[in-house]
Amino acid sequence: MSDCIFCRIAAGEIPSATIYEDENFRVILDLGPATKGHALILPKAHYADLTEIPEDLAAKAMVVAKKVVTFMKDALPCDGYNIVQNNGESAGQTVFHFHMHLIPRYKGDHAGVTWKPGKLTDEARDEILEKAKGLMQ
Ligand code: 5GP
Ligand code: ZN
């Protein structure tokens, strides 16, 4: 996908602040970081989102995440971290090449990786449990 910015960054065609690279992934610093050290895991092959990426590569992405957050905790050092992975416009995805955000957290940083809790209704619970029985078990 020559018009995909993350394909071009992952391939090294566009320079990036790369903190880790292997045969399948490049991990870069986000240009608009939520906190100091905010990084993105980019697969070198193009997949729009989590539903498209093959299972084995999705599993490998989590292994890379574990490596990078271990570095963040030890070296930055951060106090905690969020792993965020947006899929679809409604979920805040702006670059349609699968990526995982690794966001180091520091006590009192106010980075705001959060949501307002609602309430699980009986109706929603029953509907979803019924659908999951048919499709996921
Ligand atoms: P999304 O909203 O799709 O989950 O995340 C896209 C992220 O990519 C944003 O956090 C944005 O700051 C980052 N980003 C967009 N373009 C570039 C770029 O050219 N280089 C880097 N390093 N980050 C980018
Ligand atoms: Zn791409």
Polypeptide structure, described:
By secondary structure, the protein is α+β, with helices and mostly antiparallel strands. Helices cover 30% and strands 18% of the residues. It is built from three helices and five strands. The chain has helices at residues 5-10, 55-75, 122-135; strands spanning 18-21, 25-29, 39-43, 80-84, 100-105. It has a five-stranded antiparallel beta sheet. The chain is globular and about 50 Å long. The model has no long low-confidence stretch (mean pLDDT 97).
Concise synopsis of the structure shown:
This protein is of the alpha+beta class and about 140 residues long. Helices cover about 30% and strands about 20% of the residues.
Number of helices: 3
Bound molecules: guanosine-5'-monophosphate, zinc ion
- Rg over CA atoms, rounded to whole Å, is 17 Å
Strand arrangement within the widest β-sheet reads 1-2-3-5-4
For the report, how would you describe the main beta sheet? 5 strands, antiparallel
- Beta-strand content: 15-25%
Shape: globular
Helix/strand structural class: alpha+beta
Summed over residues and divided by their number, the pLDDT gives a mean of 97
What is the succession of H and E elements?
Answer: HEEEHEEH
Share of helical residues: 25-40%
Low-confidence stretches: none
Give the beta-strand count: 5
Taking the alpha carbons of the first and last residues, their distance comes to: 36 Å
